[in-house]
């Protein structure tokens, strides 16, 4: 059986007591271990002078691009969001890119993985929203524009999380199916092209997932940010009138 054509949840390697250890778990932990080792290697000899190691230079470019994207979407300081959004993007991107390795089954092809990532975003929206607006301020949004909208706003939150999980899962599974069909029809021409297309698709899906996560978080914190900006503008205006 071709492992690439089925969900990694269906591939069971062994059992740890009553718990089956599937390919999803094995490859998820494998990706996390790879990222930890890479992070340790890159950050072991950080430099601040003119001669910066190439890996550090690459890491700084990636971090700066992520910071710029977060700032552009949220119009806020990206520092508080960088760790979470950056981890989502890098994990999904690396998982998808490793799909070109023979025998590797990307964990993002599993609905359980994509659902877990979506739940993380769902919880993060609550956490960041409460941090920025307080508990009452955040949950008051569910009553806008009228209290009658409460059930619809709650349903909207859950459906948004479900859509985020299904989007990533569906795109990864459909991409794998199309590649398998083309490789079966014309195996001598398409392999290299499909591998390159798979890498590009994996990066795009990681970018879309991270962007959508940031959009959801920004929508939960924007009210507080707008009020803070309005208060700051009023204070600056008062200072200007005093000096005038």
Would you mind describing this structure in some detail?
- It is a single chain.
- The chain has helices at residues 23-43, 54-74, 79-97, 111-139, 150-185, 190-243; strands at residues 12-16, 19-22.
- By secondary structure, the protein is mostly helical.
- It has one domain.
- It has a two-stranded antiparallel sheet.
- Strand 1 and strand 2 (19-22) form a beta hairpin.
- The chain is globular, with a radius of gyration of 22 Å.
- The protein starts with 11 loop residues before the first strand and ends with a helix.
Low-confidence stretches: 1-5
Query: Could you estimate the helical fraction of the residues in percent?
Result: over 70%
Could you give a short account of the major beta sheet?
Answer: 2 strands, antiparallel
Order of helices and strands: EEHHHHHH
**N-to-C terminal Cα separation, in Å?**
79 Å
Indicate how many domains the architecture comprises.
1
Main sheet: which strands, in order across? Answer: 1-2
Percent range for β-strand residues: under 5%
